[in-house]
Amino acid sequence: MSAPPGNTDVNQDPPPPTPGTTRRRGPNWLPAEEAQLAISWVNASEQPEFAANQTSETFYRKVKEDFNLHSRVHYRNWEQIRTRWGPLNTSTLKFAAIYNAIERVPPSGSGPDDWLKAAHLAYQSQNKGVAFNSVPAWQNVRHVSKWRQDGGPDRFSQTFENMSETIEDQSTTDGSVTASGITSSDSQGSLPRPIGQKAAKRRRIEGYKDDEILSAASEFSALARDRLAFIGEGNIIAKEANALAKEQLKIEEKKQVIEEQHRQSEVQINDLKMLRETVDDLEDEESKNVLRMIQKKIKNKWLST
């Protein structure tokens, strides 16, 4: 007889696959999960031990704990967290660089909604038609210093307030965090993390990627401003077209009034002609009676007006 099964921790990562088997792919990430992942990453990077000599696995396990504490959609292990954060981090950084460049030098008469549209167009143009679909995640980190390379002030200092599936508040971190999520912060009293050979190489690669992002952002921010100016000119043309349409409508209304007056005149002329007819010109009595009835109706019509 087999022993009864023991208690299982639902938050424990599944064991690694045995040789010869493949790991089952997790469910697709939802926008709400990406938004929570961004918050959890910042929360983990704000911890005092963030700058200590810890491994990538240690850091992302902390991100996993915070993520699964607040997300009620799908459980994610630390490897899934790390795998998804890589491209999400890159895309939000790239989009933030484009948006910040537009926000710093906005076209005349434009607002935040126009800047957001222009940033989407520039991002899609830069990425071979691929749209930016992680707006909720970007909104949660857009004011964090890492995503504001222009040196703008952080707008929030409190820790993120999380909800089950709805993410409302945004916050920032005082520490400067890099794309890898394991680099040192600027928190007071923290010790710099020793840099190994692989880590140094990874940082050089990531620094190069960030430089590419900022360079491309500057290039496409000019394109975005031109497109916003074109949109403004289009709005002016649309207003002028609306004014012309209103004038044309007035002309059509006047035309209809004139046509109605003309029709009434023709009716009056025909009625007068009919009243001038005499029954003596008709031969049969039936036709005479019809003429008398028509003339009577015409008289009654004009007498009643």
Automatic annotation (TrEMBL):
It holds the Pfam family NAM-associated. Residues 132-298 form the No apical meristem-associated C-terminal domain. Keywords: Coiled coil. The keyword Ribonucleoprotein does not apply. Residues 1-29, 166-202 are annotated as: Disordered. Residues 241-285 form a coiled coil. It comes from the Eukaryota. Residues 166-190 have a biased composition (Polar residues). This is No apical meristem-associated C-terminal domain-containing protein. It comes from Puccinia striiformis f. sp. tritici PST-78.
